[in-house]
Amino acid sequence: MNLLIFLAPAALLMGAIGLAAFLWSLRAGQYDDLEGAAHRVLIDDDDE
Asked: Are the beta carbons of 31 and 25 closer than 8 angstroms?
């Protein structure tokens, strides 16, 4: 039972860190262009 005293706050802290990272990625524009990466894979760049 004493282990829950440490595990519950640790789980809440890791969840808060994950939420903060997700919100940061939203504000940084990581999800703005969802189609661009998919189309860039198909473009043939043989200019070398």
From this structure: yes
